[in-house]
Give the backbone structure.
Amino acid sequence: MKLNKTILSTAVLSVVGCSSGMNKFSNQDLEQYQQQPEKHAESVVSTMNNRELIGQTLMMDFRSWGKDPYTDEEIPVTRINDDISSMITDYHIGGVILFRQNLVNSNQIVEFTDALQEASSNLPLLIATDQEGGYVTRLQNGTEMPGNMALAASGDANNAYVAGKIHGSELSALGINYNFGPVVDVNVNQNNPIIGVRSYSSNVDVINEMSTAYMDGIHEAGVISALKHFPGHGNVSVDSHYDLPEVSYSREEWEAIDLAPFKYAIEHGTDSIMSAHVTLPSVDDTMIQATLSDKEMLIPATFSKPILTGILRDQIGFDGLIVTDALDMGAIADNFDRNYAVHASLFAGADIALMPLQITNQEEIKQLESLFVYLEDKMETNPEFLERVKEAATRVIKKKLQMGLVYQTTDKQFAIDSVSSEAHKLEEKKVADASITLIENQNNVLPVDPSEASNILVISDEDSRNELVAKYLNVVKQETGNHPMFISEQKTALVEDNLNANELRSTIAKSDLIIMSTYNLMGHAANAQKIVDIANAEGKKLVMISTRNPYDIAHVDGVQANIAIYGITGFDVTNNDRNSLEANIRSGIRTLFINPQTGLPLNAPTGTLPVDVKNDNGDVIYPFGHSVNY
């Protein structure tokens, strides 16, 4: 898709003397530099002072600014203010990451990204976001797509390509030029609290095929694609937003599993990789002292020169951008002061320090000044660090020149027409339909004839989940002839043990069909088991929908029918209370029913498991590739 582009305003690109020492470049100069980006990036860096070099290596976030005087709630940043504009200009900031609270609608986003570019000191900004698809999506009105594991379940790499192309084209239309995705972590640990369905699979070959197809789609739209999270976040049981996980693989295991997708993607043209806040003692077992406590700990990969430089640069030969995961995440921020963290990550080999500190008001800008003073001192006293910052800034500027970032989308109508277009939403539905996986179907419980399901009991942990299920049951009702369908909803903590069996039996006895939507069951899910047992004893049809990870059936015995939809309710702590993947639940609910008028399923399940499902003993009970069809 051809983007409608306009030249950045002359206020940004005219040749003007900079008090910091470096001139802004004319549009003509920038277009000339794009012909030989590496040569001219080095030339640009040679004109920069230390502050300008540092600025190019920082990517800031501005999620909120100040508080509402009446509610004391943080005020989301949806347009640039004078303080933020001055900060970007005065500190020569090289990039900005935007989150869901920044990205309300197309008209607002275009104005916001254009204003950010207007504020840039000398070169256009890298403007990034996490539009992974599935759970982690930032555009409030964008096309989400069903998520990575759903793409893999569909079995068609072209679906991943389409997802990448849609995400890339929508981001580009809005002035966002850098996407932090796809996730290429190999999710072999089904208790992983943070990756799960963000991963394509537990199979390296599937990840290789899907991730590079997605990457091709993103690149076709002219957007940078950052693979994450190096050196691998798939075999951990701790969320790095809160603590520092350890990857316990041997060196040989790690190279065969976690390293493989990154190596494959590098060979196929990836231009950026994001580091993970994990430890990998089989590659670097250095112990360091936490600066915010007395704790001695394994060095995080984000701070590890043997991992970022030794493996990525020297062993594999990657010459693209290395960006850290957010440095304000608990794994880093709870253990290390911000100045140390930025210095350590850059020194280890990162080119961009992402979210080095949180600035939410004018007073906190002093923290940024403190960071610059700290890094300038390190550059002046350590020639090796000075060269490392120059190298990082050169790589950032080279990428900006390669991308032609003197151009910026400003056509609001084009953005409005592109983002969440009818064509894009149709593709989203098609991929969601293809991903639904029927894991179990004892006695051919499915598909259900709606005319034989006049009383449906909907059970889950959350009212919002029940409401979505009920919404699409009513859609099915309308689609299949408006047969009588009474829907009752019950919110129940499925992992607890507090249901009254007699009351539950009475409720189930009145129902023709029970739909129980589970969300990451672990261990003994007592209430869920009680619901299944009573439904079976009463001879009632029960369908369990695994709404996030497909592993829930391992924790409940006797389930008659189970489908995996790979996403319904958000879990990402950075995602601003987002709570639904409607395409997934729509497709899942339609999969349960036939159309009585035709006798055919509304959506015959064709997805296959892209992971092994194991029981608590670690035995595989539903293998990779498993599916049931009708």
